Amino acid sequence: MLKEKPKEKIAKKETFMQGVITLIFSQVLIKLLGLVYTLYLTNREGFGDKGNGIVAAGYQIYAMLLTISSIGVPNAISKLVSERIAVGDHKGAHRIFKIAFATFAMIGLIGSLLLFLGAKNISNLWLQIPEAEMTLVALSPAIFFVAISSVMRGYFNARQNIKATARSQSLEQVFKTTLTIILVEMVAILSKASTQWMAAGATLATTLATFAGFGYLYLYYKMRRTEIAREIKTTVNYKYERVISIIKKILIVSIPIALTAIMSSLNKNIDSFTVVRSLKEFMPEDMAISQYGILGGKVDMLTSLPLSINVAFATALVPAISAAKAKKDKKTITQKTSFSLLISMLIGLPCTVGMCLFAGPILNLLFPNASMGEVVLQISSLTIIFTILDQTINGALQGYGKLMIPAISLGCGVIVKFILNLILVPIPEIGVNGAAWASVACHVVAFSIAITSLKRTIKLNLTFSKFVIKPILAVIIMGICSYFCYITFLGIIVQKLATIISIIIAVIIYVLAIIALKVFSYEEIQMIPGGNKICKVLEKLKVY
To answer: When you count CB atoms within 10 A of the terminal residue's CB, does the N or C end of the chain come out lower?
Structure first.
């Protein structure tokens, strides 16, 4: 028996790490597939920046309704269902699932109807982009399918069937990428390459993909019904609870998380409401939509890529902090939070500097047929570091039980962005760049409030030298060397190849600089998956 206990602990640790690694690969895969269809659409003749503008405007309205109808639901359902399962009340757990499914099916249906029936008014009056009407109509059914899928994902997560959630999300993204290309090509032939109808075809692909994701979850549920029925028969400690009481519990948990997501969605919607409207005052409508397409399509997609890497650390931090707090283990809370913030800084800083330095070459590499937007991307790249750090801080605060602070901090940032958008975008000399600067200000404000609250809540073990000076030195070394290589290669090879090689060199130099500056302590390296092996190699090289 003495030998078996350590094995159980090791298995649990490996399962947790597998979950983190799976999450990283899943998110990166989703972002890469998203990049594939964004590249296709932007470079597709007749679509380009104008098509991106139409899709982005419609998608932000859809995202807002989606946030209200489903964000926060998986975590709420997972929490409530797992609590019942833990005490053997499988009947009560399944009842929560059924009530939640019916509730959010109704909420999702209302959201779909609002978007479908209000598409004309939203596109003409709110967005002032009439071409977005069919985009909104095509997206409307997706709200219903995402809402009920969210409930099912929460239920499976509570039952420790996390793979079902991961597979459904991956399947959904594969369908979205494939169908986007197929439908846009079909619509292009039928409509003689109408940008408006191609945009509607692209968003119809999103709706069909969400249906495919729900379809997988439903089939998975049917396969498990016999097992679930067997568990219900073995129920103990069943406690009847009124339907209203269960709905209230779900909303109490999900609303604070949803509020943060709503603030994030509002942040994007500010651009969709104000940019085209303001730009039209001093430029033609088509050009205004294209300018917004650069910001809401290419730039937003590129600046959000680094978040897919960091999200695994932010997600893993929530249960880690919660568990440590329950045990009153302040040392673990400090260690996990400090380490995660350091990782986030080391991810966000080079992405910010790299995207700023190579903004033009990156756009030429990825969007040869629509490469405009270098300055907008350079400005927007400054948001990356603050957004990534904020993402990790929010994970720590939510794990500690401070659920409202992320929503409040981002809400303050959104107010600042709205004011700056109204002031800066109408100035002809600034234009769409004003919206990018407003986003930077938004995330600086949100980060400042969140980090101040975190310091008051959790003791951090990060010196200024370790957290700021050394990472900045590493990035400066990376930036100088990689840009010098790029300038040198330009006279020898084509620009695209020079860009790719320079970015690879930048990554290698940055990693070497981090090692040479000893940013990580010996103990911190051991916290990284495969840390013991890395330590042995560094010892042989006499670095540590």
So the answer is: N
Residue 543 tokens read as 């670095």
Inter-residue contact 403 to 251 (CB < 8 Å): no
Specify the pTM. Answer: 0.72
The dihedral through the CA atoms of 251, 254, 260, 264 has a sign that is negative
HSE toward the beta carbon, residue 18, CA cutoff 13 A: 9
Query: HEC string of 368-396?
Result: CCCCCCHHHHHHHCHHHHHHHHHHHHHHH
Q: Where do the structural domains in the chain lie, given as residue ranges?
A: 64-241, 249-462, 475-544
Share of the chain above pLDDT 90, in %: 31
- HSE-CB at 70 with a 13 A cutoff on CA atoms is 26
Q: pLDDT tens digit string along 256-313?
A: 777 877 787 777 778 878 888 899 888 888 888 888 888 877 888 888 888 877 776 6
Three-state secondary structure call for residue 273: helix
206: tokens are: 């999103």
Q: Which residue is it, tokens 């039928």? A: 190
Cα dist from 71 to 218, 242, 306, 501, whole Å: 20, 24, 21, 40
Contacts of 278 (CB under 8 A, 6+ apart): 421, 422, 425, 426
CB distance 42 to 369 below 8 Å: yes
Per the listing, tokens 């994970």 go with 395
